[in-house]
Write a structure and sequence with these properties.
475 residues, alpha/beta, Rossmann fold, 2 domains, binds uridine-5'-diphosphate, EC 2.4.1.323, glycosyltransferase
Length: 475
C-alpha cells in the first residue's frame, strides 16, 4: 500500500529585532517581505517600543489587515517606564537585560505560537541558540549593520593579536589598519568602529562586541542587509566563516519593488519612533531640482551645542537651502531650538522634528544628504543616488563613512572635525564644485542597487533562496 507523503506544515517565523529604530525598521521590512510570501510571522517587540509604534504610526493596524499572517507580540525588557534607558545611547542596558532574562519569554512564544524558525537580531548573541536546539528549529541571525562593519567586529580579536588594537591615543588615529582581510589599507584607526576608541562615546565594551559577533557562528544561517555589488570583497571573506549567508538588501528597496507590483497604494511602510511631520513634502515641492541639502543624524545621535551651531553656520554660509531633522530629544538646551528655527526661517530653510525619510530622499529637490551614516540612512541614500556628507557618531558609522567617501566615492567625510568652514566647503564641493563626479558615482551605485533587487538580481535571488530554506527546514 502506498503511503501519502506527510504534508509539511506552513512555516511560522519569529522575528526579534533589537529595540532600536534602525533595527526595527529593517527587520520589519523583512517581516513584510516574508508575509507577502504567505509565511506566518510573529514580530516581537518590547512593550516600550510597541507603544511607540502604536503612538506614531496611524497605519500600523492597516499593515496587519494587509497581511493576515503577520502578528505583533510584545515582551517586557525588564525596565520600568519611568526609568527606561530608551533606545539611544543606553540601548546597551536593554540588550543586556534581554540577553540575561529574555530566554523564558522567548520560550513561551516559541511554544504558544508553534514557531518553526527564529530570525534573531545577531546583536543578542546566543540568546536563542539553546532554545533553537531544544525545539529542533532553525536559527537565523540577522545583523542590521553594514557588512564591512560586521567584518571589522569579527576581526577584532585578530587586530588585538597583531597589536593593531588598542588605539594608542589621539596621535595614533591616522595609523593604517592592515590586518582585516578584504579591506587591507582602507581603514585608519579613526575609521574603526567607535568601540575601538580610547575615549569612546558609549559604554559598549569591545570584548562584548567581539563575543556577540562570534556567537552568530552558531546560527544555522545568516542574513545581511546589503548587496553583492556593494561589498563584494568583504562578503567573500565573511562567507568563509558563514557559508549560509543571505545578502538580501537593500531591504527597503526589495520591499518597495515587490510592493509596487502587488500593493501600489501602500508604498513605504512605516515604523516611526517619533511623530512624523509631513509639512516638509510641500516645502520640497516648491524647491528647484537637486537644490536642497537634507540633514539628519538618525534616531539616537546626541549632539553638543557647539556641534549644532557649527553645522548650522556652515549650512547658512553655504547659501544652499536645507531641510534639517532635529529630533525632540536631540537638543537639550532650552531656547536653542527656537533660536535655530527662527534664524533658519529667515533664510528660508526648514527645521522639523522627524520626516518620512525614504520619501524625502527620493524627492527630486534633494541634492545631497548630510548624514550620521547609520546603515539604513546610508542604504536609503545609495538607493536614491543622493551624494553624502558624513558626520559619523558611533558604532558602524565611522566605517560606513569611510566606505562612502573613499571606497564608493559617494561624498565627503567630516569625521572628527566639526567646523563651520568645513561644512560650508563640503556642501559646496558636493553640490556645486564636484557635483558631477559625485552624482555620477551615486547614480552608478543606485543602478547596481536596483539591479540587485530586480528579478534575476543577487538580492532578489538570495531572498528566493531564503524563502526556500525557511520552507524546506520547517518541520
Ligand atoms: N528616519 C526617518 N525620519 C527621520 C530620520 C530618520 O524615518 O526624520 C529613519 C531613516 O529612514 C532610517 C532610520 O530612521 O530608516 C534610522 O536608521 P539608521 O540606521 O540610519 O540610524 P539610527 O537611527 O539607527 O542611528
Amino acid at each position: 500500500m502506498e503511503t501519502q507523503p506527510k504534508e509539511k506544515s506552513s512555516p511560522h517565523v519569529l522575528i526579534f529585532p533589537c529595540p532600536a529604530q534602525g533595527h526595527v525598521n529593517s527587520m520589519l521590512k523583512l517581516a513584510e517581505l516574508l508575509a507577502i510570501q504567505n509565511i506566518y510571522i510573529t514580530f516581537l517587540n518590547t512593550k516600550y517600543i510597541h507603544n511607540r509604534l502604536i503612538q506614531f504610526n496611524d497605519d500600523i493596524q492597516a499593515l496587519l489587515e494587509c497581511y493576515p499572517k503577520l502578528q505583533f507580540k510584545t515582551i517586557s525588557d525588564f525596565h520600568s517606564e519611568e526609568k527606561h534607558p530608551g533606545f539611544g545611547e543606553r540601548i546597551g542596558d536593554v540588550i543586556t537585560s534581554l540577553s540575561l532574562y529574555g530566554k523564558p519569554l522567548l520560550k513561551d512564544i516559541i511554544v504558544s505560537e508553534k514557531i518553526s524558525c527564529i530570525i534573531l537580531d545577531g546583536i543578542f548573541g546566543d540568546l536563542a541558540t539553546d532554545l533553537a536546539a531544544e525545539f529542533g528549529i532553525q536559527l537565523i541571525h540577522f545583523r542590521t549593520i553594514s557588512s564591512c562593519c560586521f567584518w571589522a567586529y569579527f576581526c577584532v580579536p585578530k587586530l588585538l593579536e597583531c597589536n593593531e588594537l588598542p588605539i594608542r591615543g589621539d596621535e595614533d588615529m591616522d595609523r593604517i589598519i592592515t590586518n582585516i582581510p578584504g579591506m587591507e589599507n582602507i581603514l585608519r584607526c579613526r575609521d574603526l568602529p567607535s568601540f575601538c576608541r580610547e575615549n569612546k562615546k558609549d559604554h559598549i565594551r569591545l570584548d562584548d562586541v567581539a563575543l556577540r559577533t562570534k556567537q552568530s557562528l552558531k546560527a544555522n544561517a545568516f542574513i545581511l542587509n546589503t548587496f553583492e555589488d556593494l561589498e563584494a570583497s568583504v562578503l567573500s571573506q565573511i562567507r568563509i566563516h558563514f557559508p549560509k549567508l543571505y545578502t538580501i538588501g537593500p531591504l527597503h528597496h526589495l520591499l518597495n519593488t515587490t510592493k509596487k507590483s502587488s500593493f501600489p497604494s501602500s508604498f513605504f511602510s512605516k515604523s516611526n519612533f517619533f511623530k512624523v511631520d509631513r509639512t516638509c513634502m510641500a516645502w520640497l515641492d516648491s524647491q528647484p531640482l537637486k537644490s536642497v541639502i537634507y540633514v539628519s543624524f538618525g534616531s539616537t545621535t546626541p549632539m553638543k551645542r557647539e556641534e549644532i551651531i557649527e553645522i548650522w553656520h556652515g549650512l547658512l554660509n553655504s547659501k544652499k537651502q536645507f531641510l534639517w531633522v532635529i529630533r525632540p530629544n536631540m537638543v537639550q538646551e532650552k531656547g536653542l531650538l527656537s533660536e535655530l528655527e527662527e534664524g533658519t526661517r529667515k533664510e528660508k530653510g526648514l527645521i522639523v522634528g522627524w520626516v518620512p525619510q525614504e520619501e524625502v530622499l527620493s524627492h527630486k529637490a534633494i541634492g545631497a544628504f548630510l548624514t550620521h551614516n547609520g546603515w539604513n540612512s546610508t542604504l536609503e541614500s545609495v538607493v536614491c543616488g543622493v551624494p553624502m556628507i558624513c558626520w559619523p557618531y558611533f558604532a558602524d558609522q565611522q566605517i560606513n563613512s569611510r566606505f562612502v567617501s573613499d571606497v564608493w566615492k559617494l561624498g565627503l567625510d567630516m569625521k572628527d572635525v566639526c567646523d563651520r568652514k568645513v561644512v560650508e566647503n563640503m556642501v559646496n564641493d558636493v553640490m556645486v564644485n564636484r557635483k558631477e563626479e559625485f552624482v555620477r558615482s551615486a547614480m552608478d551605485i543606485a543602478k547596481l542597487a536596483s539591479k540587485s533587487v530586480s528579478p534575476g538580481g543577487s538580492s532578489y535571488n538570495n531572498f528566493q533562496d531564503l524563502i526556500q530554506y525557511i520552507r524546506s527546514t520547517s518541520p
